[in-house]
Amino acid sequence: MVWLAMPLTALFYLLTRKLARKVKNPLVNTIMLPALAIMALLLLTGQDSTDYQTGVRPLSLLLELAVVAFALPLYQQAAKIRRQLGPILLCCSLSVLISVGTTLLIGGLIQAEPELLASIATKSITTPLAMSISQSMGGIPAIAAGLVIIVGMMGAIIGFPLLRLAGIHHPEAQGLAMGAGAHAIGTGAAADVGNVQGAFASLAMVVCGIATAVLAPPLFQLYLWLTH
User: Fold this and answer.
1) Which of 36, 52, 140, 161 is the most buried if burial means most Cβ atoms within 10 Å?
2) Domain boundaries defined on the chain
3) Is residue 203 a contact partner of residue 81, using CB atoms and an 8 Å limit?
4) Which of 174, 203, 208, 224 is nearest to 97 (CA)?
5) Which string of b and e fits 34-52 if b means at least 16 CB within 10 Å?
6) Overall pTM > 0.90
């Protein structure tokens, strides 16, 4: 499985991408479907997931370069971003407050364990940051990482249809919403739609990551103080 891991991953991705061009359906997602196919293959063959992870290690290293590549659309849209920097920072900060605040509020209502809440509160930012921040608050990094992936996939699938249903057609607003709500996976989906959406999604992903690192721990401590 180690030697087949990369070819199979690339094959599933390319087939899904080709299908997505023909079938205009948000469920035909180039991240979700290959992931489900790989999971099904591992379960059917009884292969160890560790072997698969070893086999796709080069792709994981390339992923870091791909994240850096998000800087290109940011550079291309730099003039627009400078003109609207104040509203952008405000919107991203409010997004973080709403995301973390509603998580803590709902968790308090259902009397969820603080450890679980600390893991869920970082669900809307990119995986490395989410794991680090949740761990600093006493959460479980593995749960945080799993939720980040689920939220990202959901955002990539239903994000743009939901925005259009809400009457939000402005490309800058769409990009900010996708980056703030669905981090890197949503940013990838936004980049597929357009350069403007991709650029503003990249910016929102970065700003929301920083804002979450700053705001989530004190909000969590405030929640603990109010509930104990």
Assistant:
1) 52
2) 1-68, 71-227
3) yes
4) 208
5) bbebbeeebeeeebeeeeb
6) no
Q: Which two tokens stand for residue 30?
A: 């180039």
Structure-token pair, residue 83: 């003109």
Q: If we measure between CA atoms, which residue out of 148, 112, 117, 113 comes closest to residue 130?
A: 148
Contact between residue 104 and residue 119 where contact means Cβ atoms under 8 Å apart: no
User: Among residues 92, 155, 147, which one has the least CA distance to residue 117?
Assistant: 147
| Separation in Å, CA 221 to CA 103, 111, 133, 179 | 14, 16, 13, 26
Dihedral sign for Cα 198, 200, 202, 208, please: negative
The Cα–Cα gap between 178 and 130 comes to 17
CA-CA-CA-CA torsion sign (118, 120, 123, 126): positive
pLDDT in tens, 149-193: 888 888 888 899 899 999 999 999 999 999 998 888 888 888 888
